[in-house]
Amino acid sequence: MSAALESTPRITSWRETYRQLLRAAGAHAASLRTSLIALALAAVVQGLALASIVPLFSSIQTATNTGDILTWLVIMTLLMVLATLLRWRAQNFEFNGELAAVNHTLRTRLGEQLRRMPLERLQDKRTGEMTELLLGNVDENLNYSLMIIDLIMVAVLTPLATALALLAVDWRLGLALLLIFPIIVPLYRWRRPAFSRDKRSLAEAHAGTSADILEYTQGLPALRASRAAGEKAERLHTGFEELERIQAVSHRKSAGPNGVVSGVVEVGLLLILASGVAWVVSGTLNVAVLAAVFVIVARFSEPLSTFVMYTSMLELIEAALERIEALLAIPPLPQIEPCARPDHHEVHFEHVTFRYAQADTPSLRDFSATLPARGLTALVGPSGSGKTTLARLLMRHADPQEGYVAIGGVDVRAIRPDELNAMISVVFQDVYLFDDTVLANIRMARPEATDTEVEAAARAAHCLDFIGRLPMGWHTRLGDIGSRLSGGERQRVSIARALLKDAPIVILDEPTAALDTESEVAVQRAIDALVRDKTVIVIAHRLSTIAGADRILVIEDGRLVEQGRHDELLARAGRYRASWDAQLAVKAWRPGTADADVRA
What we know:
By secondary structure, this protein is α/β, with parallel strands linked by helices. It is elongated and about 115 Å long. Helices cover 64% and strands 9% of the residues.
């Protein structure tokens, strides 16, 4: 496909945009439809009110019957009042709180979708982009829709209704006004692809900038420690400059064409007036009618000239709707029916092959292994060998392309998602805590737990000592990602959370790898309390920590190359023995040893 074709934006019809709006409104779709109909009727009634100026001026010119003047004044006033009431009725969608309810419901739907969609797909998206989608795009979706649609209807339906009414007074004037619309249509179709491309580029730039800002803000401590804050700030500033460039290019490119559109419409209206003057001079048109047409044309001049600019705002709404619907369209992982529930917790991988969506090669290749229930199984191997992928497949962040994963003989695809989540506790190396209280961060594992149960879990995880030192104890907010706590303290809170959950399967992703000796001892004691009578899976890099495991699986390049107990694997003198010897050599090494050897 050529680059030109790839850059051509997808043009959404107004009918499809209307359907997207109704789908986004959900349960409030009927109310939104009623509001849009009311806006359309208001625009038509307003056009009829403006058309009433013609007979009113004619009555004033003759001045033979004041009753006619009053009649047309009353008719015009009633029509304008009706148009106002209809518009007010339409705006009730916003005034009575339905618009806020739609935005809330839409964000809730997006939140539910985040929980349902495969985490593998979610990991491809930056946090800032999701923030822009959940906040910015949802607000763009409906907050300004009624206002923009109202402006477009006033620019189109009001002149159209007036022109049709004028056909009954003077067919020439009515037809001349109607001819303006065939002029606007090709101009609109000419500009719309550019509008669509510009607004979508702008939406993508906003999402990228939001992600850059969030990443920079969250990473400031690390950036300052690395003396890279300035460098990252330059990258952020580059993103700002790119956003400015896109906006400037969009404005510059639109200035000329928008001027052409406005000029064509203005010239067309002036030609109508010129024709009216000629008809008055020739005696075929009443001067009062011409005066009324002057008023009408003055009223229509700005809305018609800026109609195409109004429609450009629809592109922002359409871009937001497309991003929202694209996220909502991601299907959840398939569920095997009927659902089943295992009666024991042995974990089995059967000929599993898995490749990430963005990867060129599989992370796991024909992997088969059994992890015994109530036993400790260690997964070892170099970085990128597939250890973490095995844990993710067990938690069903994704499904393998070939083979299956089972718990207690039941395919995880046949276990209800909430039941599968309840079976597994995870203690990651990089702990994520929320900006909430200590109590809330632990209790999230089991929301119905009592304070006594939470405290018991914290005691078992050796958390009480540092909780007592916090400014507000249990009710101290921990900051973004638990920034108030040290690494060891965060690990212990994570273990307390897992203890409170009391799941039969526990995954430990090297939880002590980055800790100092004192913290490691405290965390290891907490882990000992956590793993009693559980099916435990340890992802290990330091082999000394898993020497007592019931089974060790050695993984390399996505394949199981060795398995057995520590002493058995050492006796085989294979991959595990080579890694063990290498780690012993690293422990024995001291700074300056190599230099001493060279000098010798």
